[in-house]
Design brief:
Number of domains: 1
Order of helices and strands: HHH
Low-confidence stretches: none
Distance between the termini: 41 Å
Oligomer: single chain
Shape: globular
Number of helices: 3
Strand content: under 5%
Length: 67
């Protein structure tokens, strides 16, 4: 299956512009998906990280703001 190509700018919105938060968010979601959670995107990929990045791009998951 082909790799997806998602522009970084479209992903940074979900993490309030933080690359660090984006990396953590994507990694945690990919782990959740590999542990058996259902993907929130149509036609999920075999690669969990691709699914996590698509969910982030589509606004289905976002980083939490700490106060």
């Amino acid at each position: 299956m082909d790799r997806i190509n998602i522009p970084l700018e479209s992903l940074l919105i979900a993490s309030n512009g933080s690359i660090y938060k984006l990396a953590i968010l994507a990694a945690k979601r990919a782990i959740s998906l590999s542990d058996g959670e259902k993907p929130l995107v149509e036609k999920p990929s075999e690669r969990m990280l691709d699914n996590a990045l698509r969910e982030i791009r589509e606004g289905k998951i976002k980083a939490k703001d700490k106060k």
